[in-house]
Amino acid sequence: MNILGIIKDAFLFPSRNIGRFAIYLLLTVLVVGFVFGGFVTNAFGLFDNENFLIGGIYFIIAMLIGFILAGYDIKVIKSGIELDENIPVFELFEDFMTGFNNVLVSIVYFIIPALIVLLVGYDTKLFDNITGVVVEFISQIVNVYILGGSTDLAVNALSHAMTELVGSLAVTLTAALVIFAIFAILQAMAEARLANTGSVREALNILESAKDIKRIGVGKTILVIILVVLIIAIIETILMSVLGKFLFLYIIFYIIITPYLLLFAQRAIGLLYSDIA
Questions:
Q1: Closest CA to 187 of 114, 259, 110, 258
Q2: What DSSP assignment string belongs to 199-258?
Q3: Is 78 helix (H, G, I), strand (E, B) or coil?
Q4: DSSP 146
Q5: How far apart are the C-alpha atoms of 199 and 190, rounded to whole Å?
Q6: Closest CA to 20 of 83, 69, 82
Q7: CB-based contacts of 236, cutoff 8 Å, min separation 6
Q8: What is the rounded radius of gyration, in angstroms, for the C-alpha atoms of the chain?
Q9: Whole-structure pTM over 0.70, yes or no?
Q10: Distance CA 35, CA 116 (A)
């Protein structure tokens, strides 16, 4: 399927069965509600152990529902791979198990780039420079305000430490942006592999995920993902600019539109992968 066909099909897909989209929307709202309730209850739990326990239960419920949604996302990708026009039905236990696998795959594809970025930070001495700035800042406060030392010398010393920090931070953040972007695309392929094969082992095969991008076409893969991200960003920006002053309406529309856009993105991944399935 060509790029415009993928975007058009994926964007209209959630509207093909309002009832099933409504279930997805409801589950999403429940996750957000239980997470919010967990944070609020845990805040009171600082003074009351019973509230702290209830907050923990809210988080567990949110996680369980989240697994169902994550499994359903894989079903949506699979519908795109198979070019099925129908929105998948919910099967709670099956979706939960698939969602557990999806979350496991996502964690692995997050941990690897995170470790790489940590190594980059270590190589650029980012953490040493952060420590250096903190130590220099504290020592200069003591020197100037307690011991009556020179303010100019303090500023120069702190400025030098900050320059070192900014340089290492810039390199690390640039590397992080590139590395996480690459692994985000690889993760999309991994989710498609999970949807196509049902195998966590296949989804965790990073080398094959990279080969899938080549099989589909690097340019096509990147362009579809960029278009999906751009469309989501434009819609949410418009929503903010139009309803930003009306907080209640903004929240209502945001709650409705965000799940729609999530399904749009998952469907697009499936359609993209259908070229090689």
A1: 110
A2: -HHHHT-HHHHHHHHHHH-HHHHHHHHHHHHHHHHHHHHHHHHHHTT-HHHHHHHHHHHH
A3: helix
A4: I
A5: 10
A6: 69
A7: 254, 257, 261
A8: 24
A9: yes
A10: 30
Other CB atoms closer than 10 Å to residue 181's CB: what's the count? 13
Q: Alpha-carbon torsion 219, 221, 224, 230, what sign?
A: negative
Q: What is the pLDDT of residues 174-215, one digit of tens each?
A: 999 999 999 999 999 999 999 999 999 999 999 999 999 999
DSSP state of 198: -
* Tokens read off for 25: 């929307």
Angle of helix 92-123 relative to helix 126-141, nearest 10 degrees?
A: 70
Cα 60-63-66 angle, rounded to 5 deg: 155
- CA angle (41 as vertex; 39, 46 as ends), nearest 5: 95
Q: What is the dihedral of CA 201, 202, 204, 207, to 10 degrees?
A: 130
pLDDT band, very low/low/confident/very high, at 56 (cuts 50, 70, 90): confident
- Nearest to residue 262, comparing CAs of 232, 219, 227, 240? 232
User: Could you count the other beta carbons within 10 Å of the beta carbon of residue 104?
Assistant: 15
75 near 95, Cβ under 8 Å?
A: yes
